[in-house]
Amino acid sequence: MDYEPVIGLETHIQLNTQTKIFCSCKADSWVAQPNTNICPVCSGMPGVLPVLNKMVVEKGILLAKAMKSDIQDESFFDRKNYFYPDLPKGYQISQFDRPLARGGYMDVPVPAGYIRRVTIWKMHMEEDAGKTKNEFGRRLIDFNRCGVPLIELVTAPDIRTADEAAQYLIRLRQLLRWIGISEADMERGHLRCDANVSIRPVGADYLNPKTEIKNVNSIDAVKDAIEKEIGRQKREYEAGRKVEAWTLEWDEDTQTLKKMRSKETEADYRYFREPDLLPVLLDNEWKERILANFPELPLDRRARFISEYGLPEYDAEILTGERSLADYFEAAVEFYGGDPKRISNWLINDVMRLLNSGGIPARDLKLTPRYLSEVVRLVDSNKINVSTGKSLLEKINSTGKSPNAIVSDEGLAQVSDDQSIRLVIKEVLAESPQEVANYKNGKITLMGWFVGQVMKRMRGKPDPLVVKTILEDLLK
Ligand code: ZN
Ligand code: MN
Asked: How far, in Å, is the centroid of ligand 2 from the Cα of 129?
């Protein structure tokens, strides 16, 4: 029998607020020593009161807008009760039946060539728990992460392959960075994914019991874990057994899934309203203020780069990979005024290398969009040749000087008058009788060597094409 996977994802997104969700401790503890970034509120001392951080609501609204979700004018916090050492209060403050937003969707382009529309069920605000780890033969607890603000985003089971799940996460990460609400660094746990997986006969309209895979912390691991679980469930059904609703844990070291426990039901958590927090009420004025500068989203911008600038899809995809790069491109095109594809080529082939080696966003380059457009114009007008242009980019980026200043300071302007090039070529030929003879005897691959000699002697300034033309003429 053929089976089709049915996959829904729950992601926990760590917001990049300054402070935690219900107290004024710093939200980020990446470099802090264990249990140093805590206070009575987030470490669950008796009698303390939580105060909601407004920024958490604002960032949540941005995400809801990006997902075309229905933002709820009134939402509530609840207590989710469970006992675990990393949860000092004995409950997590979360939202249950009245979340911040419901509905919406995300379109996910899949490399196989189609778009998977993933429905969003709901998104809610909640606090993170602490961390436990085994060290020195003991179980240790770090409460620094308690109270770090999270948005939990729950999708419908619309995903059909492990690759679609991976692509969903890639697009979600891009979107979170794009709207500026999370660093979305999976290695640092800013984006944590649980996958609900079941399979059913192709065409069936019912759902079989699902398992929940927890603790998958990279996109590759999500893909691997889902593929393994699909395979396991197939083997169970084929052997005439049933799949039970387990919670599974992905073990990164052994690349295997282990059974953690039978899955809890909602009743196990004894949800009830958090009595220490007021409902979250959103008025139109606040919503409008939050959404006032809402950006054009990546896929829309990608489509516009294709239609407005005539870019190939490949270019548009790369240039909209990150918002600051897309902004950079558009600014450079505006300064340049010529064919946008020229700017795109320079960006993708050369400027991206500077970005990757510097590990910085495009907005922080010393090579500004204006300078890039000036370099491309210098090349267009043959004032400098392409290779000078490329080395110019690095010089501008390390010094912050303008292209024209560097060209005139270093005498980089291209030598285009034939006479001086001819003189140098004649020198080279006179000093290389053996190579000239070999060339004339048919070893035409020596042409590249001759061009190189001339370029070297003229410090790369002449146009290599002009050099080659004159060489061919003189070697006839
Ligand atoms: Zn605190
Ligand atoms: Mn949660």
From this structure: 10
**Any idea which ligand is nearest the CA of 99?**
2
Do 122 and 152 belong to one domain? yes
Same structural domain for residues 133 and 162? yes
3-state secondary structure of 115: strand
3-state class (DSSP) for residue 27? coil
Residues 453 and 359 in one domain: no
Q: Give the up-direction half-sphere exposure of residue 264: CA atoms within 13 A in the CB hemisphere.
A: 11
Give how many domains the chain has, as a whole number. Answer: 3
> How far apart, in whole angstroms, are the C-alpha atoms of residue 126 and residue 26?
16
The pocket of ion ligand 1, defined by CB under 5 A, consists of 23, 25, 39, 41-42
How close is the Cα of 27 to the center of ligand 1, in Å? 9
Do 259 and 325 lie in one domain? The reply is no
Give the span between the Cα atoms of 262 and 421, in whole angstroms.
Answer: 81
Backbone angles phi, psi at 235, to 5 degrees: -65, -35
Instruction: Output the CA 97–ligand 2 centroid distance in Å.
Output: 13
Q: Tell how far the Cα of 43 is from the centroid of ligand 1, in angstroms.
A: 7
In the listed set 249, 269, 289, which residue is the last one of a domain according to the structure?
Answer: 289
What is the band of 263 on the pLDDT scale with cuts at 50, 70, 90? Answer: low
Final residue belonging to a domain, choices 262, 289, 316: 289
User: How many angstroms separate the alpha carbon of residue 158 from the centre of ligand 2?
Assistant: 20
How far, in Å, is the centroid of ligand 2 from the Cα of 141? 19
CATH number, domain containing residue 428: 1.10.10.410
Residue 184 and residue 37 in one domain = yes
Joined together, the tokens standing for residue 146 give 């308690």
Q: Of the ligands numbered here, which is closest to the C-alpha atom of 26?
A: 1
Rounded CA-CA distance 353/3 in Å is 44
Q: Give the contacts of 424 (CB within 8 A, at least 6 positions apart).
A: 454, 457, 458
In terms of domains, do 139 and 280 share one?
yes
Q: What is the pLDDT of residues 119-135, one digit of tens each?
A: 999 999 999 999 998 88
- Does residue 207 share a domain with residue 340? no
Q: What is the pTM of this model?
A: 0.86
The ligand whose atoms approach the alpha carbon of 23 most closely is 1
Q: Which ligand is nearest to the CA of 12?
A: 2
Both tokens assigned to 415: 């030598």
Model pLDDT for residues 142-193, shown as the tens digit of each residue: 999 999 999 999 999 999 999 999 999 999 999 999 999 999 999 899 999 9
CA of 23 to the centre of ligand 1 (A): 5
- The ligand placed nearest to the CA atom of residue 123 is 2
Same domain, 236 and 313: no
Domain encompassing residue 115: 3-289
